[in-house]
Amino acid sequence: SQQGEEDPQALSIQEGENATMNCSYKTSINNLQWYRQNSGRGLVHLILIRSNEREKHSGRLRVTLDTSKKSSSLLITASRAADTASYFCATGGHFGNEKLTFGTGTRLTIIP
Amino acid sequence: DVKVTQSSRYLVKRTGEKVFLECVQDMDHENMFWYRQDPGLGLRLIYFSYDVKMKEKGDIPEGYSVSREKKERFSLILESASTNQTSMYLCASSLFRDTDTYEQYFGPGTRLTVT
Hints:
A: mainly beta, B: mainly beta
């Protein structure tokens, strides 16, 4: 079953603008991760935020986590054409459970 | 850098054939995973392994089996391929830590077409 649901399913913005994607999940989590997938390729890990953290930054990426609302957002600032990709959130379960449950993804298109 | 390789990028097989998808990782990771990815459904876990010869079913194991004889290699087997197994197959690996979930490292994927 799908744990995470990304919103929107697709997003197109102009280069230089900020892109925000949201993820909602259903059960309690240990951590939440964001991955990027370029067309037809494997996924690449971007950032991990633990359940006791509220915000995390990595370069142009900013992730927030609200466990009370069971939601997370990924903000990409000053977007570039190379950011065009699909973005997935994935939730990690309880301690000792190594499995991740992935959402269906947001397709981001950056228009030059 | 962690490297996860998959034996084929593209594969075309006939219905009823036995299909082997191979995955190798070079960072001594304990955990390995097989997913399939279909449009609108995201990634779904087929099987995972947390040690040599150990395996656990994921969300959609029907029609598949796995083999892990060596730590670095995890094979996905389609016993009798069917057209509904046409999909992108992704392998991943991660470190094991019993108090946390680590990031996963993915291979480039194998696009399998069953005709």
